[in-house]
Amino acid sequence: MRVLAAGLVVTAGLCLVSALVMPRVVHMHPEPRERECRVLLRGVYSGQQALRADRGRYSTRIGDIGFQPEYGNRYLYLLTPDGRIAERRDGGAALGLDLGANGVGPDTSRTQETTATLRAKLPASIAAELGTYGDCDAGTCGFTAACVGNVDGDETPDVWTVSTEETVDVDGVRVAPGQPARRVNDRAD
């Protein structure tokens, strides 16, 4: 009988601890999702640099830079603010990526956000920066790419960019070329 009572006390204690700790653990979840974005933007930058070294130019097509994220991506990746997006639905079952596309949509089996809703949430000032520009023969070309996601389910998107130019992040910190810069902080609200 005493063992049963002690077991009930321990169980009640664990339930109380779980009730206090779980909200904090759940709130911490966005960090791995943000890491996905930063890692893949570095891949976009590397692909663009390899293309520039090989062919003397940058591109707005995912196939030209070899950008093919694995299934399960939660972010929309954009090489231009508009243009075709390679869509991913239900884990990408039987869907190949359109290598002529200008971006990759989120895998809707992993997120409720769609390409259309994430594009609509991208601030116009950041959208205006996306794409390629300049004259590579003259050494004055560059590019900016972005990822847009919603890591906490509210209306504010999480937006990161990578560029050949120095960028200023959401906190006013200068970010070196090739390094992802957080431009809109989804978790700040």
Low-confidence stretches: 3-28
Number of helices: 5
Order of helices and strands: HHHEEEHHEEEEEE
Helix content: 25-40%
Strand count: 9
Query: How would you sum up the major sheet?
Result: 7 strands, mixed
Mean pLDDT comes to 83
Give the class from helix and strand content and strand pairing: alpha+beta
Kindly estimate the percentage of residues that lie in beta strands according to DSSP.
15-25%
The 3D shape can be described as globular
Distance between the termini: 51 Å
Whole-number radius of gyration? 21 Å
Quaternary state of this entry equals single chain
Briefly summarize what is shown.
With 189 residues, the chain is of the alpha+beta class.
Explain what this protein looks like in three dimensions.
The protein is of the alpha+beta class. Helix content is 36%, strand content 19%. It contains five helices and nine strands; from the N terminus they run αααβββααββββββ. The protein has helices spanning 2-28, 30-55, 62-65, 115-121, 124-127; strands at 76-78, 86-88, 103-107, 131-133, 142-149, 158-163, 167-168, 174-175, 181-184. Strands 1, 2, 3, 4, 5, 6 and 9 form a seven-stranded mixed beta sheet that branches. β7 and β8 (174-175) form a beta hairpin. It is globular, with a radius of gyration of 21 Å. It starts with a helix and ends in a 5-residue tail after the last strand.
